[in-house]
Design brief:
The structure holds 2 protein chains of 2 kinds. Chain A is mainly alpha-helical. Chain A has a single domain, classed as Amino acid/polyamine transporter I (Up-down Bundle), CATH 1.20.1740. Chain A is built from 16 helices and no strands. Chain A has helices at about 10-20, 25-35, 40-65, 70-110, 120-135, 140-155, 155-160, 180-190, 190-195, 200-205, 210-240, 240-245, 250-255, 265-295, 300-315, 320-360. In chain A, helix 1 packs across helix 14, helix 3 packs antiparallel against helix 11 (about 210-240) and helix 6 (about 140-155) runs antiparallel to helix 14. Chain A is globular. In chain B, the strands form 2 sheets. In chain B, strands 1, 2, 3, 4, 5, 6, 7, 8 and 9 form a 9-stranded mixed β-sheet that branches. A 4-stranded mixed β-sheet of chain B has the order 10-11-12-13. The radius of gyration of chain B is 26 Å and the shape is globular. The N and C termini of chain B lie far apart (about 85 Å). The chains are: A mainly alpha, B alpha/beta.
């Protein structure tokens, strides 16, 4: 057992996985899936959740075989140092891209809702510095951030009760009019939103009570799925078809019909508050990618954090347009789909085959 | 190192704010009205709230001409030293001619695109938006915008108006199978503007109007808990006698007037067979006024009275459906209902409209008198 690992309780896995799944994606996912599966978009979400639940189970079975190893280390054990490092590099690049996509996604949102005219790089710098500061604190700090973020933002769900006033049930009918291939396309497109459960591969060594992790990670995955399902169903019922296709962030547009006697325009609060929702994502992704850099290049993690942040900052000077962003999210979602929806199954079988061979010889 | 971090972060994080907005320098627009001038030039009029206490007037109205909403706004900026902000914009008025001839959807694009405008602002139609905004009779409110907002808001909450805010309008405009409606505000010299009737739309063009009272039939089937508003009937005495309603007292005049207040209702559109639509609704009411004051002495006569009222309402609903059909519009959302049936889920807009024109409507409203107030 390694000595420099600080442990946290198993239930923290729920907060970490859940908060890293919920991020920028949920704001726009209903529209993206609606474009594929029409009023059956919610089924795609459910299927996606079911699938992830199975993947999570496979992931944990793999991790249980290599106790106290994260995915990077498993790769090196399975494929050897050289091949393992290549795969690890690819994963690090994915996490940097994912991190970056969250940053520009949030910046785009906040620039649209109220901060028009602010420099993109300035906002990136602020977010990055915050993240660097948090990640420098180590894993326990990140776990704490996830927990706090959950507590501080989960109440936003209850804000949705006001739009419930003007929903029309006829909009979701008839059920099951989308073809299976359309539903599957919806599942594919939902990947960007649903991703985040892969963090389990990397936080596993930090958790105590390994036998309870399966329960808490399943809980997190299903809670996320239900939350996204809920928001998708409400957006389908709330917006008319053409309207839903137009809005980039249907959830924010929906919140704009929420008002309280003491606050007229609640969506501005929600948008500002959303930074707390994405903050755990940023922290975890930076943490994981810097871990990877440490594993591959034997750099100190602290230096890894800086190197990655500088890369992200420099990139933020280039991709700033709406359409570029959209393309970028799409790409990240696609790569993420192959990497975390498909690849874990292969990895599991490879590990089984390998252990069979070894036990025979 | 860490300290520098904290210092830098705190400086950066607290400095991120939009350009400062000082209340006195803001020209807070509460209402904007558009009038059609030419083919594609419009006149925009806004009313700005004044915050300077030294000024006696509480509001200023200014107008400008342009082709797009934002161009008009840019030109309005030339006419005032205040920053025009639209965060408190509550109502958009459209000129009737413009709504009838050109449609208003293109004008509303900016309202959706601009995030500083909320989706709860009201839309309304008036004869001449500039005159309406320039009308000086606005009760105790500081400006016309606040007055019209209160007027519409109150009506939506507790009277006869159908929801008419930006979101409602868009969601029925963009959905085929239902057409939007908006209130019409009348403007007369010497009185404050008032709600006159409700405009019916086909796509984004106004094609006709119905009285406020009749919106009850639309609300019956589109909203779940709206206020239907009180319903008044004038029933000739012969009808009562023919039906055999026995009253304790003899009625002197030849009309029997009754006003009922809906307590609860439930409306359902049922697509029964090919080409036939049942419009079932069930309203429970309390009687709030009877002229002359009579007493219904038994259950039987109440039952018969209910039947008379039902007949009356069904007839009215049938009439109004014919009006809708003649105008080729569907504010009740029957098309939407048809589209939600699996068999017709892929119908396109034209087919749906065509189908709608051939449908047979069967109004079937039932009334249940639940309460009669403090007296029998």
């Amino acid at each position: 057992m390694k000595s420099n690992i600080s442990f946290v309780n198993a239930y923290i896995a729920f907060f970490i996985i859940h908060t890293s799944q919920i991020g920028m994606g949920i704001l726009g996912v209903s529209r993206i899936i609606y474009l594929e599966a029409r009023q059956d978009a919610w089924m795609s979400i459910l299927l996606s959740g079911l699938y992830i639940s199975i993947i999570t189970w496979i992931m944990i079975s793999l991790l249980n075989k290599y106790e106290n190893c994260n995915l990077y280390e498993i790769h090196e054990i399975l494929f050897g140092r050289f091949l393992g490092s290549i795969i690890n590099t690819f994963i690090v690049i994915y996490f940097i891209a994912a991190n970056y996509s969250i940053i520009i996604g949030y910046i785009e949102l906040s620039l649209t809702w109220g901060y028009e005219g602010f420099y993109e790089w300035g906002a990136t710098l602020v977010l990055l510095l915050l993240t660097i500061y948090a990640v420098s604190g180590g894993f326990r700090v990140i776990a704490g951030i996830c927990f706090l973020s959950f507590i501080m933002t989960i109440w936003l769900v209850f804000v949705m009760y006001q739009p419930l006033d003007s929903i029309k049930f006829a909009r979701i009918l008839p059920i099951l009019s989308a073809s299976p291939s359309e539903l599957m396309k919806g599942v594919f497109k939902s990947s960007y939103t649903m991703l985040g459960f892969e963090t389990l591969y990397f936080i596993f060594p930090f958790l105590k009570e390994k036998n309870k992790i399966l329960f808490f990670s399943q809980l997190a995955v299903w809670f996320t799925t239900l939350l996204i399902l809920f928001s998708t169903v409400i957006s389908i019922l709330f917006f008319s078809p053409k309207e839903l296709e137009r809005h980039i962030w249907p959830i924010v547009s929906m919140i704009s019909s929420v008002h309280f006697p003491f606050i007229e325009r609640f969506e501005f609060i929600a948008v500002s508050l959303w930074i707390i929702v994405i903050f755990p994502n940023l922290c975890i992704y930076l943490f994981i990618s810097s871990k990877g850099v440490k594993q591959i290049f034997h750099l100190k993690q602290k230096h890894g954090i800086w190197v990655i942040s500088i890369i992200i900052f420099i990139t933020s000077l280039f991709i700033t347009k709406r359409f570029d962003n959209d393309l970028f999210f799409d790409q990240v979602g696609q790569v993420g789909f192959y990497l975390w929806f498909i690849y874990p199954i292969f990895l599991y079988f490879i590990s089984i085959i390998k252990s069979k061979i070894f036990s025979r010889s | 190192m860490k300290k520098w971090f904290i210092l830098l972060s705190s400086l950066l994080c607290t400095a991120c704010m939009p350009p400062d907005k000082i209340l006195e320098r803001q020209g807070i627009s509460t209402i904007i009205g558009y009038d059609l001038l030419d083919e594609d030039t419009y006149k925009g009029t806004i009313s700005l709230l004044q915050f300077d206490r030294k000024e006696e007037k509480t509001s200023v109205t200014i107008s400008a001409v342009g082709t797009t909403s934002k161009q008009i706004r840019q030109r309005l900026e030339q006419r005032t030293s205040h920053d025009i902000t639209s965060g408190q914009l509550r109502t958009i008025l459209f000129d009737k001619d413009m709504t009838e001839m050109l449609g208003i959807a293109s004008f509303l694009d900016t309202m959706q695109r601009d995030t500083s405008i909320g989706s709860l602002i009201f839309l309304a139609i008036t004869n001449n938006a500039e005159d309406t905004i320039n009308n000086n009779n606005y009760e105790e409110f500081p400006d016309m915008g606040s007055y019209i907002y209160q007027l519409l808001d109150k009506h939506e909450r507790k009277e006869m108006l159908i929801d008419s805010n930006l979101h409602d309008f868009f969601s029925s405009l963009y959905e085929f199978g239902i057409d939007p409606t908006l209130p019409i505000i009348a403007n007369k010299k010497g009185v404050a503007p008032y709600i006159n009737s409700v405009a019916l739309f086909k796509d984004d063009k106004m094609v006709g109007s119905i009285s406020l009272k009749k919106t009850l039939f639309i609300k019956l089937f589109t909203k779940r808990d709206a206020f239907l508003g009180d319903i008044t009937f004038n029933i000739p005495v012969e009808v009562l006698e023919k039906k055999g309603v026995t009253l304790v007292e003899k009625i002197k005049g030849d009309k029997f007037n009754i006003t009922i207040r809906p307590i609860k209702y439930r409306g359902k559109i049922e697509f029964s067979k090919e080409e036939a639509v049942n419009l079932n609704a069930n309203i429970s009411v309390s009687t709030i006024e009877l002229q002359p004051a009579v007493t219904f002495n038994n259950k039987e006569s109440i039952k018969k009275l209910e039947e008379i009222l039902e007949e009356e309402l069904n007839k009215e609903l049938g009439d109004i459906l014919e009006v809708f059909r003649k105008l080729e519009i569907d504010p009740i959302g029957i098309g939407r209902k048809i589209k939600s049936i699996r068999k017709y889920s892929n119908t396109n807009e034209e087919d749906l409209r065509e189908k709608y024109s051939r449908l047979k409507f069967k109004p079937n409203i039932t009334i249940e008198i639940k309460r009669t107030g403090a007296v029998d």
